[in-house]
Write a structure and sequence with these properties.
The protein is an alpha/beta fold. Helix content is 39%, strand content 15%. It has a domain of 239 residues: Rossmann fold. Helix 6 packs parallel to helix 8. The protein starts with 9 loop residues before the first strand and ends with a helix. Bound molecules: nicotinamide-adenine-dinucleotide.
Length: 357
């Protein structure tokens, strides 16, 4: 019997216009699916990410919308749940917005999917940052068995854990074939600064550290380093992440959790230095104190279980991945500029409505 693949299948990608979701959609298309249904409310993304392909059907709206849920096809083969309220700072500024788009989304989606018996797998984008041990000294690889704290730094982090808890419930009670993919820090093409709507804080424009640094470096700006840049992360290129998600769908065990990571630790100082090198940015680094909400100094993830059970290993080195991210950003500078400008306008409106200067 041949190994399962996605050919001829009907796939739901919730949050499929987003950074990781759209890269997943692009890779799935190469595997001859029958249809990919993307549901996205463009809260933190742009339509430019959605491929114009007759096999992709885009539904604009929130996955919490009962009409959208009711209209989901009864013969879905796979579902990927990547919607979230991006990101940590936005969730601190607007916890209720986070609840609506990061907690309720998971609950309503899983409750609907439990009735779709054709589903072979439901893959959930879980977050390693929500489980990683907080350390400032020497990090050890976070395994899938890491105990989860009841004290989280952000509503975003709480919501990501709640998504795991609800999925586990629907797996145990309703046999939903639920698989958790715990993401480390993803970077790469299609992470568009400023994409989407105002989410309560100036930080929403800047998204994660890599696209922010790449953009600033391309514009000759100083890269800001909180706490001397000695924090570390496990950076995984988005193409590898999409392959890992597909491996979870095809080979993941229902009820299981897998880290999708490289197993390698890179400090923010190393990241900034490489980005300055690849962009030719000569402006010196800008050293700053630690951010008040972020208490996770150093971390990386264990990749053993994903290697052993999914046959998944990240392939792209940080050097190659960053070069490809810089190239993509250069090639899409107009798109990024448009999204940042739209975001600035929304921010000015929001601030004037709230009476702030
Ligand atoms: N990027 C990372 O480093 C990282 C790390 C850990 C976990 N994750 C998780 O991976 C997933 C994808 O992250 P990303 O970086 O691509 O973020 P993203 O913001 O680019 O993608 C999220 C997508 O969900 C959409 N969305 C938000 N609310 C929605 C709703 N109510 N209904 C339908 N769509 C909705 C957004 O518009 C966006 O397109 C998220 O669940 C995130 O928590 C990402």
């Amino acid at each position: 019997m041949s190994a399962p693949d996605f050919s001829g299948t009907r796939i739901l990608v919730v949050g499929g216009a987003g950074f990781v979701g759209s890269n997943l959609v692009h890779q799935l298309l190469a595997q001859a699916p029958r249809e990919i249904l993307v549901v996205d409310n463009l809260l933190s993304s742009d339509m430019a990410n959605v491929p114009a392909d007759p096999r992709v059907r885009f539904v604009y709206g929130s996955i919490t919308d009962d009409r959208i849920l009711a209209a989901l096809p009864a013969d879905l083969d796979y579902a990927f749940h990547l919607a979230c309220f991006h990101g940590n700072q936005s969730s601190i500024a607007d916890p209720l917005g986070d609840h609506d788009n990061n907690t309720l989304t998971s609950l309503k989606l899983f409750d609907r999917l439990k009735d779709i018996r054709s589903l072979r797998k439901v893959v959930y984008a879980a977050a390693a940052c929500a489980v990683a041990e907080k350390t400032y000294d020497t990090a050890s690889a976070t395994t899938e068995e890491q105990p989860v704290t009841l004290y989280h730094d952000s509503p975003y982090s709480i919501s990501k854990i709640i998504g795991e808890l609800y999925g586990n419930f629907y797996f145990q009670r309703h046999k939903l074939p639920f698989v958790k993919a715990r993401f480390s820090n993803v970077y790469g093409p299609r992470e568009i600064l400023g994409a989407g709507r105002w989410r309560g804080t100036v930080h929403t424009v800047w998204r994660n550290v890599t696209p922010t640094f790449v953009w600033r470096a391309l514009n000759g700006e100083a890269l800001p380093l909180d706490n001397g840049g000695n924090a570390s992360r496990d950076f995984i290129f988005v193409e590898d992440m999409a392959r890992g998600l597909m491996a979870c769908a095809l080979r993941g065990g229902p009820g299981e959790v897998y880290n999708l990571a490289t197993g390698r630790e890179t400090t923010i100082l190393e990241l900034a230095t490489l980005i300055n090198e690849y962009t030719g940015n000569k402006t010196p680094l800008d050293l700053r104190p630690a951010r008040d909400w972020d208490r996770s100094g150093k971390r990386f993830a264990s990749t053993e279980k994903a290697e052993r059970e999914l046959g998944f290993t990240a392939r792209v080195t940080i050097a190659e991945g960053l070069q490809r991210t810089v190239d993509w950003t250069r090639g899409n500078a107009d798109l990024v500029r448009r999204c940042i400008a739209a975001h600035d306008k929304m921010m000015a409106q929001a601030l004037s409505q709230s009476g702030a200067s």
